Amino acid sequence: xxxxxxxxxxxxxxxxxxxxxxxxxxxxxxxxxxxxxxxxxxxxxxxxxxxxxxxxxxxxxxxxxxxxxxxxxxxxxxxxxxxxxxxxxxxxxxxxxxxxxx
Length: 102
Hints:
The protein folds into two domains: 1-35; 42-89, no CATH class. A hairpin with a 2-residue loop joins β1 and β2. Helices cover 27% and strands 17% of the residues. The longest helix is centred in the first third of the chain and has 16 residues, at 15-30. It is built from three helices and four strands, in the order ααββαββ. By secondary structure, the chain is α+β, with helices and mostly antiparallel strands. The strands form two sheets. A two-stranded antiparallel ribbon has the order 1-2. Strands 3-4 form a two-stranded antiparallel ribbon. The radius of gyration is 19 Å and the shape is elongated.
């Protein structure tokens, strides 16, 4: 079996199951029963998303450094691929360079 064939048909791999889920999502979408797309977490555009020191300034938040929820954020738990949070408002949010705060 080639590597590509293995990935498609091996019962130990999730490839085939993922294809089935994609087909089901497309079927639901075409039928108008798809879940509405949710707004992505603001963490994707936050300067504190990646803990690092730049020019002597420490960036990062309690979520990115220690996986501890931040007091005062507006968020919901998300379990799509991994246990995480979808954040809409956060007191530690800093827009990335070049991004305007929304």
